[in-house]
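Annex B. Sample input.
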Amino acid sequence: MTNSFFQPVSAMELARFAGIPTFMRLPGLTPDHERIAEVEVGLVGIPWDGGTTNRPGARHGPRQLRDYSTMIRTMNPVTGVAPFSLVNCADLGDVAPNPVDIQDTLNRVTRFYVDLHNRGVAPLTAGGDHLTTLPVLRALAQSGPLGLIQFDSHTDLFDSYFGGHKLTHGTPFRRAVEEGLVDPKRFVQIGIRGTAYNNEDVEWGEAQGIRIIRIEELFDRGITDVMTEVRGIVGTAPTYCTYDIDFVDPTYAPGTGTPEIGGPNSFQAQQVIRQMSGINLVGADLVEVSPPFDANGGTAWLGISLMFELLCILAQAVDARRP
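Annex B, continued. Sample output.
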């Protein structure tokens, strides 16, 4: 049973365009707040895109997502989940990045999330480029490798960029497997597509046991069939979900750094999350929303709507783990 303190501000009480924006109009708490120990799901921003190799801008994603999140209400009318009534949620602010030092930023993120993990807070994160997922996994995998569900148009399994640089937004999941943060046999990627220089990333991933589902297979088999397989792959053990907004077709989500045509529409983007119900989710993120390429704000609105869908699944999982 949640406390009224953790309920979002209603638009019936304060107009959506008024007040200081927080994620989904939740209370914004600092680490020393007297109610911090009651938080069960923490919404966090990582405003950093130092791993980007082409079009930057995702560092501005968390701020825009917070602004657009004032339109989020309290219940999912399709699934019936009311996450703010299931668990205590709060906006825990942003991880302060170092915009000129990749390694320092990654260390800062890991320290922030280690603290959350040690306090039993399940994180829902707004990125940031996709490299930001790696330090989060480093914090959450303290007790052993996690399962991983990745919605994306790219594998992000490359070894290095530009003469041996190992830390970019195209390498995080290779590092995660190498570091033992993710169990490759419980790792599935959905939506992969786009032109390529070679198949090295796919071949490496499949050699480790990663299940890679290209967009053609998703559309040929259908979402229900594919997501049934996904649930079977990750099983009942702790699992993380990372959702790159470029999974969605750029017609619906143009505001991202590396768009790829031929992806799902916005409704299908919701459906894949809804069919994760029952998974033992320990955290999730939505990354690569880039406001400079989001002229009308539609990508941010889609992004925060998908974060709400993820929150519904995460809240169910937190509630199910209660003694």
